[in-house]
Amino acid sequence: MCKKYMSDANELPPVITIDGPSGSGKGTIAKLLAARLNFALLDSGALYRTAALAALNRGVDLTSEIALAQVAKALDVRFVVDNGRLRVLLEGREVTSDIRMERVSMAASKVAAIPGVRAALLQRQRNFRRLPGLVADGRDMGTTVFPDAQVKIYLTAGAEERARRRAAQLRGKGVSVSLRDLLEDIRARDTLDMNREASPLAPAEDAVELDSTGVDIEAVLQRVLTLVFDRIQPGVP
Ligand code: C5P
Predict the structure, then answer these.
(1) Which of 48, 103, 109 to mutate to test the pocket of ligand 1 (most atoms within 8 A of CB)?
(2) 3-class DSSP assignment, residue 138
(3) Helix, strand or coil for residue 154?
(4) Protein residue with least CA distance to atom 8, ligand 1
(5) How far is the CA of 26 from the centre of ligand 1 (A)?
(6) 15-220, superfamily in CATH?
(7) pLDDT (tens digit per residue) in 23-80
């Protein structure tokens, strides 16, 4: 039986935001949390990655703000949850693995720095809010997209550990990677994400900051669940 979660302040479904830099574990935590609570899941990074892939496929200049904003506005993307796994379709074609390639990661950070791109994708992200609730994973979920979220988490980890996690993930998929290159990429993306004008990566004032360096994922999840149950009251089943 699925419990109903009540948000006390307003009638909108509750939102839990998980923001932080790449490799902090937020994607894993967001997925586990959404499954545990039976909430919808927004992987906003996948949206920026898909916009970047669409731009790369069309040979759009990644410094052309107007052209990139147009790509984002016209983006024909669909997220399908299949056996608990998120599949991403761009113009009807499966791009689930393509959007995780390193060249797309770097391009996504560049594309995401363009205010017109962020504006074009804002309402699409808000449309994910539905009953019984939403877990939203990204960089500006708690600051810009869902400033009224009931629970805001800002998850961090040291850059070396984040690079090691990413390397393990990619090696697990049979992709050979250099730890040094990954660390460089992660630092470059951090710099871009934290220093851009539009919605920079930063904790919301009311976010709870958690450092996952050296902490296993189950322990982080338990900590987050405690915060969630503290702030979102389970309602009538
Ligand atoms: O989370 P993920 O690594 O998939 O995100 C890819 C890129 O998309 C990030 O490096 C960041 O530049 C951008 N992004 C963003 N705002 C979000 C989510 C992702 O700017 N809410």
Answers:
(1) 48
(2) strand
(3) strand
(4) 45
(5) 11
(6) P-loop containing nucleotide triphosphate hydrolases (3.40.50.300)
(7) 899 999 999 999 999 999 999 999 999 999 999 999 999 999 999 999 999 999 999 9
